Hints:
Radius of gyration: 33 Å
Shape: elongated
CATH superfamily of the domain at 64-212: minor pseudopilin epsh domain
CATH class of the domain at 64-212: Alpha Beta
Order of helices and strands: HHHEEHEEEEEEE
Strand content: 15-25%
Number of strands: 9
CATH topology of the domain at 64-212: minor pseudopilin epsh fold
Helix content: 25-40%
Strand order of the largest sheet: 5-4-7-8-9
Amino acid sequence: MATAAFKDGPAGARERAAGEVGRGAGPGRAGYTLFELLVVVAVLGIVASVGIPAVYHNVKKSPLRQAVSDFVEACRHARMMAILEGRASEVVIRAGDGRVAVQRAVDVEGEWGSGMAKGGDEEDGIGEAAVVAEAAPAAAGSVRGFAAQIPESVAFRQLVVNLRDMMDAEEARVRFYPNGTCDALLASLLSDQGEERVVTLEITTGRESVEVVR
């Protein structure tokens, strides 16, 4: 019994200790070597160099994506303004310099939704109504205006409002009405990289759709 106790006791303990040393968990292996740490650091560096640019690209919008996002936001903002305030609103578009603004609609020679702009400040091109809308504080329950600048690397390739080509016009107006309807719109945005997106409006719902052309 004593011999069995000896084998099961101290001898077994020595065997277990030897096994743990072999696995690197005992006093025979105090930690990682410098070479192993350098390998880990190198692997982490490779993973970071591959992953960080991809994450940055996904987080930061390209100029075309930003332009489409701003243009769509302007249409949504105008639709919301018309419905909440119970009066027509409009998106004022300057294809020449890429300015987009939302304001309360004003009648132009009795032609509602004609897409044409008339008068206004020749220097800024947004018009007197837009200047008033920017300067006057929003009344209680009203919706503030919205303005955006299309990046210089993105340009309008096509701008059609109510079947009228507005590319050569100083500015075009797209109207949204309290019942949720709007003017017909087709706007094509082209980047300097050759990418193109087409934004259209559904006249019965005022909802926008974006088509990837290339």
